Amino acid sequence: MQISSVEAIPIHRELDERIAIAQKWISSREYCLVRVTTDEGVTGWGECWGPVAGNREIVEEYVAPWLEGRDVRNVEQIHDDLVFKLTGSYHSYTPASVVGGVDIALWDAYGKSLGLPVSDLLGGRRRDSVRAYATGHFWTEVDDFETLKERVVAEATGHVDAGFDALKNKIGFQRHPDFPWGWREDVELVAAIREAVGDDVRLMTDANHAYDLATARRVGERLSDLGVYWLEEPVRPHAVDNYALLNRELDVPLAGGECWAFEHEFARVLDAGAVGVTQPDVTSAGGLTSTRRVATLSDAHNVQCIPHVFGSAVALAASLQVLATIPGEPMLEFDRTPNPIRDDLAVDPVTNDGNSVPIPDAPGIGVDVDPDVLDSFRMD
Ligand SMILES: [Mg+2]
């Protein structure tokens, strides 16, 4: 099961309508996929977090020559060696997204070589389907807050009509120059969703680190009164001490993890009591290897791991495999924003069955990439 080639495949698609979160507008979706091929002709797919730029060059020029000739069965050792190599070379920058893309591709190839789903190799399946929450409710171009609120509430009731009983929306207007509102409108938006969907729907909200500490406290107190299930990324990810403070003070638990990588970063977060929910992303936290380790570490701290997912069909498939293995009651973050690469790249797209999503048991990560669709998305 020797690795014979490692390729970086950049893909991109403009969106019909741009959408916004506290930090930015999103007008396209873009990914650097990783394709590993073994000497037996088995292909494994992975996905890096973030822009293609940087990921592609490091995968192709720096990692591929080092990786070729190694055995996919040694995936965890390769993961650790790769983290060591990249940390030595790039120091504090350590491109975790590259580790993520390569690690997922290796697990996929390993599983396919054995004819087993990756969940079997990660310690075995605890579930064959997983509760899913609808992530969305991003902001669109509007002239006034009332229109935005109406659109977001309509989206929320649409998800409930589609069977979801857990939703997540975006707050943090003050951080975005094109949305001239503040924390009061953030709270008003969540209150409007709560009123529309009722108390039985699990409601989470995500500030994408828009706040200073005092604003986070003001918002968090009010979200607690609205029965919000978690407040995600209220402050900047490096401010672990602020997370710990807020997580102790507020009734609403904090969630975070999409900007943290590797088990050693999550160990610091968990030791500090900084979150009630950990959210490693397979593409940015160091792949399936690190995500599974973070889930174990979280469980040891009595903290639920609920991975972050906001990728293509490849990241979604990989996330489902690790979700099959996570202790407790994880949920799938099921991105419902418009994304042709998530919906069309796989021959069999992932869909919800009411409030849950079935976890594939096909070999590897269980994704069958459509070659013609892939070609239509390629940037190179
Ligand atoms: Mg988030």
UniProtKB/TrEMBL annotation:
All copies of domain Mandelate racemase/muconate lactonizing enzyme C-terminal, residue ranges: 149-253
PROSITE patterns: MR_MLE_2
Pfam families: MR_MLE_C, MR_MLE_N
InterPro entries: DgoD-like, Enolase-like_C_sf, Enolase-like_N, Enolase_C-like, Mandel_Rmase/mucon_lact_enz_CS, Mandelate_racemase_C, Mandelate_racemase_N_dom
SMART domains attached to this UniProt entry: MR_MLE
Molecular function GO terms recorded: lyase activity
UniProt keyword terms in alphabetical order: Lyase
Protein name: Mandelate racemase/muconate lactonizing enzyme family protein
